Amino acid sequence: MSETKGSCVGLTRRGFLKTTGAVAGVGAVAGAGGPALQALAAAYEPGQKEGDGEQVFRGVCRPNCFGFCHLNVHVRDGKVVKTSRAPYNEDCYTRICQRGLSHVYRIYDPERLQHPLRRAEGTERGAGEWERVSWDEALSEIAEKIQSIQAHYGEGAVAFLTASGNQSAGITSAYSRLIALLNASSVSACLDMGSYYGMQAVAGLYISPLMGLQMWEGNEPTDAKNAKSIVVWGANITDAQVQNWHLIKEAMQGGTKLVVVDPVFTQVASKADKWVSIRPGSDTLLKYAIMNVVLEKGAQDVDYLRQHTVAPFLVREDTGMFVRRSDMGIEPVPTGDVDAATGREIVDDPYMVLSGGALVPVSEASEPEIEGSYDLGGVPCRTAYELLKEEILKHTPEEVSKITEVSVEDIYELADMCMDTPVYHYEGYGPQAYNNGAHATMAGLTLCALLGNLGKPGASYGAFWGVHMGVNSVYTAPNGPSKGFSIPSVDLKNVVETGQFAGQKADIKMLWMYSANPLNTHTDTHAWTDVIIPAMDYVVVADSVMTDSARYADMVLPIAQWFELEEVANAGQCSSLHHNEKAIEPLYESKPDTQIVSELAQKLGLGEYFTLNNEEILEEMYNTDMGKALGITMDDLREKKQIRFIPGDAETDPHIAYKDGAFGTASGRFEFYREAPTVRALTTKAPTPEEIERERMPHWFPPLEAWPENELYKKYPLVLMSERPRFRVHSQWFSVPVLRELDPEPYVKINPVDAEARGISDGDYVECYNDRGSAVAKAVFSNAIRPGVLVYPKGWQMTQHKAGGWSELSSTEFDAFAVNNNFMDVLCEVRVWNEGGGR
Ligand SMILES: Nc1nc2c(c(=O)[nH]1)N[C@H]1C(S)=C(S)[C@@H](COP(=O)(O)OP(=O)(O)OC[C@H]3O[C@@H](n4cnc5c(=O)[nH]c(N)nc54)[C@H](O)[C@@H]3O)O[C@H]1N2
Ligand SMILES: Nc1nc2c(c(=O)[nH]1)N[C@H]1C(S)=C(S)[C@@H](COP(=O)(O)OP(=O)(O)OC[C@H]3O[C@@H](n4cnc5c(=O)[nH]c(N)nc54)[C@H](O)[C@@H]3O)O[C@H]1N2
Ligand code: SF4
Ligand SMILES: [Mo]
After folding, report:
1. Which of 167, 207, 225, 248 has a 20 to 30 A CA-CA distance from 28?
2. What is the pLDDT confidence band of residue 524, given thresholds at 50, 70 and 90?
3. Does position 6 have pLDDT exceeding 70, yes or no?
4. Domain ranges of the chain
5. Considering the entire predicted model, what is its pTM?
6. Ligand 3 neighbour 68 (Cβ under 6 A)
């Protein structure tokens, strides 16, 4: 193992052994002869006690890896000695991984923050010099800053930023309540939003009767076995969604074929029946080429298009809007109902479709025509399907092959598999991480709608991920929602630079980050260190370890670890609520976020709103009338440990998306054509008329940066892509010795052709760089990487690199509609690292 820079986490072999010893000293590796993972993984039966005096608590592993695995947290003498697999109510979700098995190292991490830290007086932010302060001093100072900043710059000048470090009800509700009462601003993370926005654009949102919002609405992964083929679009399942890999494998054992479309020959690709290597950023085109073959073969599902999509709707050429009855001069009829969302009266003004050459309201046509045109008093109109067909016919396999670098034969073969339905399309988050990424999702779903490959067992497109919304909204906003700004994180730099947001003056002067490490996990570290942070009068970070973001704070607050408090995890791929018991007292001086917020509130004169302790907050959140009606109260959760918030059963009756043929769109149909595209979130950028036009249908346009036609390509000819390693979830687990032994330091995978052209040898330290920044890592030769592409496993803190950090290279540029972090839309160059030398 080599030495890495930085005081926090640079572990030499000697340092590593010393650390392991220190952890073992507090009883970490019970019964294990050493830190070997095998020993940590010793089998445990549910409820089994290892020995006298051992207590086993139910824990929930809750990083944003989507797994939310249930754990036994084994406690002896008030110390966690081990974590092991605990039973999920549904067997198919009972599982654990190497991260779940190594929690003891996180709890007793020597790097764990023990008490509040204030940036040492006279030192620069990021210098890493701290002084210990008491909680009373820390919270008094923070309260004084909040009050003085709000008095000077307005209430919205204080902003809270969170990401996906821990999606749980207690923490979320406590901060939401404080933000609402302070009228503070929120900075929202823009992670995976290309995929989310793309899905919502064409298919809308699904809200389950049990108050679950399916943010990513596909068939449950346990349904993959019902498909003839699984087509993976840029998902690294064996490493990034390891909890689902056994479901894919079981499907394969039952005869389901696996195809992987990925620029990289990933681990999943190596297990597949077919791997299709694609040029990064071009998935939308490949999907159009497949649709082209579908039309060529006449394989489209006319009935599905007619009944469940906007195919038969007529589109006016002049306005781009669907033809309604009012376009024929018939006044809309008031229904007497009011739209809850807009407060507007609902009128009856039906969409008109062609039937036997005449226009009729859609409900009156049993077999509306999906092809054809109509002259509406001089305004030409065509069916939405005609418009889609026109776009599809532009993208022949031959043309698409030239751009995507997928062979024509492969396009036909893939098209054949897609047409042999049901097909389970498993979309990951690679294709959406480009500026054009949302359209890859829109096109994928459109391909499925064209084939009627939705709403049936085995027939699905996308990902699957839910969040429970049945919380007590009076608790989270007792006097109504905050009047502060809601700023997407990719736009924060622009807001700080212009002092404007959504047409108003916006002076953001204080940032409080929790469950987030944006200087590491969001794009363009220098946007944070050089623009955003310097513009702040005050920066607070609440975390359990010294992260890249915490290093730049003025005050760092130590939080209690996951098993040191009771919590309810309320999101994830299993679409369940999960109960996490408190197993031990918070270590050192650390406190749960809920307690930190309550104690601060006392100092802010908001004490009357924060009289409940952590457990009582959870009861307040779930013991609602709705909770009682749904059988989801805190008592239910404490007893059952896991409660599914969508109907069905994972094993015997998996969730099938769009089963009833209805979609959460304005028309209630699948909208491959949209009348009035709207942005996902307000930003400082307004979409241009061309962008609005483009947004109506899935459309391919080149990535913003990572494309050969880009001028920058001459200087930076390599596309820089990330992958999620099995050793970390984002930046979490970064300092766990047993995992560091397997994965000691940052590396970058490079095709030998690219390396040799630059005089790079396998194992050299190399510097990847562009105009925004650089990162130094070890070069690992790999023929699994396409020439012209570099791949780095993400999530190292900057202090773990010899120099720089991966997020220095990406940009905060974003698409005005999807408002997403473009993690893969990055160009760079690489050279042998010249330590101490300049460029
Ligand atoms: N161990 C671990 N697990 C995790 C996480 C973690 O940090 N660590 N993070 C979690 C989170 S929040 C998320 S969002 C998920 C992400 O889950 P995944 O999306 O499965 O994870 P990635 O490793 O980003 O894999 C993306 C894949 O897309 C490919 N790709 C890149 N560009 C393109 C393209 O243009 N087209 C195609 N077809 N493929 C492309 C990449 O080569 C890569 O194989 O993982 C979750 N699980
Ligand atoms: N290069 C590159 N970067 C990426 C991606 C990529 O594909 N490529 N993917 C992105 C995606 S999809 C995601 S979702 C993000 C995730 O981005 P983040 O959410 O910022 O990442 P994490 O490292 O999981 O969590 C942040 C911090 O939350 C802290 N935390 C955990 N539990 C608690 C708690 O209870 N209270 C408090 N106060 N803090 C807590 C952790 O210790 C950790 O330091 O990463 C993104 N970053
Ligand atoms: S890290 Fe994810 S997959 Fe691993 S045990 Fe935790 S929740 Fe499960
Ligand atoms: Mo994510």
Report:
1. 167
2. very high
3. no
4. 117-192+488-562+584-621, 711-832
5. 0.94
6. yes
